[in-house]
Amino acid sequence: MTRYQCPECGYEYDEAAGDPHQGYPAGTAWDSLPETFTCPDCAVRYKEDFRALEE
Amino acid sequence: MQHLAADNGLAGYVDRKRRLWLFSLMVPGLALVGPLLYMLVSPNVLWLWLSTIFGYVVIPMLDGVLGEDLSNPPEEAVPALEADPYYRYVTYALVPILWVSFIVNIAFLGLHELPWYGTLAVILATGGSLGFGLNLGHEMGHKKTGLERWLAKITLALGCYGHFFVEHNRGHHRDVATPEDPASARMGESIYRFVFREMPGAFFRAWDLEAQRLERCGKSVWSLDNEVLQPAMISAVLYALLIAWLGIEMLPVMLLIAFWGAFQLTQANYIEHYGLLRRKEPSGRYERCQPHHSWNSNHLFSNWALFHLQRHSDHHAHPTRRYQSLRDFPDLPRLPNGYFGMYLLAYFPPLWQRVMDPRLLEAVGHDPQRINFLPAKREQLMRRYGLSEAPLDGAGAAA
């Protein structure tokens, strides 16, 4: 399980926790998020902009 | 609440605007002052025009006289500036001011016999204060804390505009300065035409965004988790209580006030991105929003009254950045006055075009590929300004 961070606002998507508010339940892999995924907090960074965080 | 610059990570930086942000409380509070002076000092209708005259006459003059502020906080001071709770408390304090002002003004209208120009004054003043509520809801709705997001919804509910919280963050910021954005004005589009696209477009975009989110969540769009419905329910209860107290005849008045509040946002949207266009990349996606995709104003007073909203490029580059940290950059598209003066100009479309079209052409280097045209006016404007199409490269101008 990896965490991915928005380089603009610091929002973190943690695969283990998902983002249930956005409709991505716990355990939803980053790869299965839609390609149209944008940062839920700032909305100005796309999926490919996110950085994987090292554990 | 004593915060000294030297000891809290501000690296010696002193925010000279710190106390001046209280103007962001006082200017919206003027709508409350009119009825109070009428009731407590003398029943003179002129009092009721106080905040409207202040907005349309005094603020543009103050912007002209006080001029612009080009100063920025140094980047190393920003984390401490963002963490300083004082700035948040200022925004929290405006919530009850706006609620009290709205209720007092509605009650004042319901309980006093006023000539038509008195009623009009209260409608404009109260609607204007809802515009400040939209600005406050905008500032807080961008933040990550649950408290600020709820305060945004509660504030926006006053003017039945809670959907803005959804539509702005996840819609406008994604689509800004493209033909797809109902909240970005096109070159050649008057504000009177824009409003018919902007208000319904914003509502339906909010509704669609929530429907998509709730579908992913496996919930009905009519679920209580719908963030368009949540503030709408607050609005419904508030308006129902006021009608129960003051009579059904208050309903059209309140709807006019809500419309005038929403129109304040329409005005801001109109001037914030007029004619500016993000290019379409070969992938079909638009280039990321750049600082040159927003109009800016550094005028001191209107920025104090609007929580730095006018430093709009930095806001779009960093939407979650707090108002006290927003920065100016050189060579950005600039408005010749603050928002309030520009609103006046927008009411007269020929005047608006005379002032803004040359600025727009300069801002985009006379490149029609960088102009978001009103499609029906594209050819006419190209001829009028002697523009020629750049070599076709597939980059999308106005569709």
UniProtKB/TrEMBL annotation, chain A:
Protein name: Rubredoxin
Gene3D superfamilies reported in the protein's UniProt record: 2.20.28.10
GO biological process, one term: alkane catabolic process
UniProt keyword annotations, A-Z: Electron transport, Iron, Metal-binding, Transport
Family: Belongs to the rubredoxin family.
PANTHER family reported in the protein's UniProt record: RUBREDOXIN, RUBREDOXIN-1-RELATED
Necessary cofactors: Fe(3+)
Domain of life per record: Bacteria
Database matches in InterPro entries: Rubredoxin-like_dom (IPR024934), Rubredoxin_dom (IPR024935), Rubredoxin_ET (IPR050526)
The keyword Iron-sulfur is assigned to this record: no
A Pfam entry, by short name: Rubredoxin
GO MF: electron transfer activity; iron ion binding
Taxonomic lineage from the root: Bacteria, Pseudomonadati, Pseudomonadota, Gammaproteobacteria, Pseudomonadales
Recorded coiled-coil stretches: none
